[in-house]
């Protein structure tokens, strides 16, 4: 088991991160390279997701994560410096999953029926948030410190890079920088609205319908502006 001194040091680091102005990306100390280590890494993340859903981020502790995974706390600290790094890895895991699913939809773009594609994908993402409460808990936990927020921005930008490429056929004459900004706006709106859609007392269906309207109106305007653009260079 981890020594008392090491556990106290980790808690001090947790407290420091809550108030720090640093904005470095939070990443695991190391990633597994062998199957046995990968199983432990995955078990810790699965336990973290369950714990986050059960108790929320305020009551989330590394000790409880290790206990639920049936692993020594020292094993957890081999991979993760603290709970903030864990939640950032969960956020990365969620976004990578969405990126992979979005890539499967990519064959439908460009399409004259892109509005149907948009509705289909938003419904898909909304279904994931409804069926997996941990997604909202992860998103909320990412707002807890400057470093977690900064890491979240990095993750969203990586996702937005993919979205920007998919916007290319829809907005061929739009400058690349503008298209990148549009993609970042869309990603941020989607995640903010999905979080809003699963709040207590909120109609999920109504919120998702509003999200679709926002995205549709935004993209219709972008498409029209691109068609009218006099730019001669296709980005």
UniProtKB/TrEMBL annotation:
Record's keyword annotation contains DNA-binding: yes
UniProt DNA-binding region: 61-80
Keyword Lipid biosynthesis belongs to the record: no
Pfam family, one: TetR_C_22
Residue span of region Disordered: 1-38
SUPFAM superfamilies in UniProt: Homeodomain-like
Record's keyword terms, sorted: DNA-binding
Every HTH tetR-type domain range: 38-98
InterPro entries: Homeodomain-like_sf (IPR009057), HTH-type_TetR-like_transc_reg (IPR050109), HTH_TetR (IPR001647), TetR_C_22 (IPR041674)
Spans traversing the lipid bilayer: none
Name this polypeptide is given: TetR/AcrR family transcriptional regulator
């Amino acid at each position: 088991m981890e020594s008392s001194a090491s556990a106290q040091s980790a808690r001090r680091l947790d407290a420091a991160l809550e108030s720090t102005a640093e904005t470095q990306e939070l990443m695991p100390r190391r990633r597994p390279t062998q199957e046995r280590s990968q199983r432990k890494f995955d078990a810790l993340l699965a336990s973290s997701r369950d714990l986050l859903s059960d108790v929320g981020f305020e009551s989330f502790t590394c000790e409880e994560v290790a206990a639920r995974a049936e692993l020594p706390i020292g094993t957890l600290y081999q991979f993760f410096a603290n709970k903030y790094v864990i939640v950032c890895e969960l956020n990365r895991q969620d976004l990578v999953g969405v990126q992979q699913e979005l890539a499967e939809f990519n064959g439908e773009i460009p399409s004259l029926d892109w509005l149907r594609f948009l509705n289909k994908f938003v419904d898909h993402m909304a279904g994931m948030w409804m069926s997996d409460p941990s997604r909202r808990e992860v998103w909320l936990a990412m707002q807890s410190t400057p470093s977690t927020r900064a890491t979240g921005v990095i993750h969203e930008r990586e996702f937005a890079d993919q979205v920007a490429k998919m916007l290319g056929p829809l907005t061929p004459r739009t400058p690349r920088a503008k298209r990148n900004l549009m993609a970042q706006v869309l990603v941020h709106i989607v995640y903010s609205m999905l979080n809003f859609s699963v709040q207590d007392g909120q109609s999920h269906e109504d919120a998702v319908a509003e999200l679709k309207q926002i995205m549709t109106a935004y993209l219709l305007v972008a498409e029209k502006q691109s068609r009218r653009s006099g730019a001669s260079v296709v980005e």
